[in-house]
Write a structure and sequence with these properties.
The complex is a heterodimer of chains A (114) and B (113). Chain A has 114 residues and is mostly beta strands. Chain B contains no helices and eleven strands. In chain B, strand 7 and strand 8 form a beta hairpin. Chain B is globular and about 35 Å long. Classes of the chains: A mainly beta (114), B mainly beta (113).
Chain lengths: 114, 113
């Protein structure tokens, strides 16, 4: 069965500092990996996704993530945090065996300190 | 282009009452989904519809029913609401299954007293 683990339910960084949000997955076949962001009282928006090809994926708002098969990881990074990055971030996995189903992590709440 | 819309935005029910959450998408997507979001638990799939005319159970289907009314609309029904169903409900759609990203609606905040 597929699963997603997000280490750290709360992460705080200073404005301008590196953002690193961790995601590890389990999948028996090549995965499709996604990062979503949720702002307060809103739905989820796609930040970036990995399906095939280049393992370093760039998304919106300066975020990027690298698929590392050997580590079964898909960590999300941003070189310099902005106040507007404060939100909840969710990692998700699917694959051709899950068919229609996404499996979401429990989320990481990012706080940016001025 | 409104994307995915959900009604209502908020709802308070008493235990045992029934209600239907409505969802519609205008992106001509084939697949639609219903999730619930609870603190510390992420999003859990309730039901999904891979294509018009089909529905399947997800991770937490008990206490819910769904209808894929047409390609645009996918409704979620609570026949007899319970306090454990207090949650935020999200509808999503995607072009197809597998590698395609899902697009989410704004959510319905449901409280069952």
């Amino acid at each position: 069965a597929q699963s997603v683990t997000q280490l750290g339910s709360h992460v705080s960084v200073s404005e301008g500092a590196l953002v690193l949000l961790r995601c590890n997955y389990s999948s028996s076949v090549p995965p499709y990996l996604f990062w979503y962001v949720q702002y307060p009282n809103q739905g989820l928006q796609l930040l970036l996704k990995y399906t095939t090809g280049a393992t370093l994926v760039k998304g919106i708002n300066g975020f990027e993530a690298e698929f590392k098969k050997s580590e079964t990881s898909f960590h999300l990074t941003k070189p310099s945090a902005h106040m507007s990055d404060a939100a909840e971030y969710f990692c998700a996995v699917s694959d051709d065996n899950t068919g229609n189903q996404f499996y979401f992590g429990t989320g990481t709440s990012l706080t940016v300190i001025p | 282009n409104a994307g995915v819309t959900q009604t209502p935005k908020f709802q308070v029910l008493k235990t045992g009452q029934s209600m239907t959450l409505q969802c519609a998408q205008d992106m001509n997507h084939n697949s639609m989904y219903w999730y619930r979001q609870d603190p510390g638990m992420g999003l859990r799939l309730i039901y999904y519809s891979a294509s018009e005319g089909t529905t399947d159970k997800g991770e937490v289907p008990n206490g819910y029913n769904v209808s894929r009314l047409n390609k645009r609309e996918f409704s979620l029904r609570l026949e007899s609401a319970a306090p454990s169903q207090t949650s935020v409900y999200f509808c999503a759609s995607s072009e197809a299954i597998g590698s395609y990203e899902q697009y989410f609606g704004p959510g319905t905040r449901l409280t069952v007293t």
